[in-house]
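Hello, quick one for you while I still have it in my head. No rush at all, and the record is pasted right below.
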Amino acid sequence: MKEYSKREWKKIFEDSIMDELCDAAYYHRMATMAPDYEAKDIILNIAADEECHARKLMDAYEGLFGIRYKKPALPSPMVKDYKRSLDDRFHEEVGAYRKYEEYYLASGNYRLRDMWFDIMHDENRHALYMLYLKNKCCC
């Protein structure tokens, strides 16, 4: 298991917050392309989860490092094809699950471990939703 320095943890939190904010924006854009109400509802709920993850990470960041995270301007996400997005997001969510699993295992702080654990499992659930929507839409 890798051990991270305080400086590395700071960068991990900053990158994770940005990832979650970008993912939320992507899902909001993707929801506009959803083929039906159920798909739109699922995608918007995932966007809300990602926003919640960002807030939890920002709160932890402030507690750990004594400074507020300053949100940069987010790029406007480009979603060209709904079906292709389902594939892409599946792989992104699985990658996020693995990343957060690593942070969970590396964290010695129980509150942080709980946070990483919760986020990790949300990302796994999101990947499953992408498979469900792909099967519903494409098969």
